[in-house]
Design goal:
The chain has about 100 residues and is an alpha/beta fold. The chain is built from 3 helices and 5 strands; from the N terminus they run E-E-H-E-H-E-H-E. About 35% of the residues lie in helices and about 25% in strands.
Length: about 100
């Protein structure tokens, strides 16, 4: 997994599957929310996402009041967000 940032946009390339992936995502977003209250996350090719990352995203939206939107490239990941009822919470859309 590889993370890059540009302004308030985070791009996560590769599959999100390990605890270290979660820690890297959390660290990147923790530093970003100090200056941005609206964040877009691009996930162009991951087919899944860990529950810890979903939990962290939920905390950002509900507790920290971050305006989060997620663009996914893979239809399986889109379906996962839909199955979990998270499309509206995270403003998920197909890229």
């Amino acid at each position: 997994m590889e993370i890059s940032t540009a302004g308030n946009v985070v791009t996560i390339k590769g599959n999100i599957k390990t605890v270290s992936d979660y820690q890297e995502i959390k660290s990147t977003l923790d530093s970003m929310i100090t200056t941005h209250k609206s964040i877009t996350i691009n996930i162009p090719d991951s087919i899944s996402i860990t529950s810890s990352v979903i939990g962290y995203f939920t905390k950002l939206v509900q507790k920290e009041k971050i305006d989060l939107s997620i663009k996914v490239g893979d239809s399986d990941l889109m379906e996962l967000f839909d199955d979990l009822g998270l499309v509206s919470l995270f403003k998920v859309r197909k890229a």
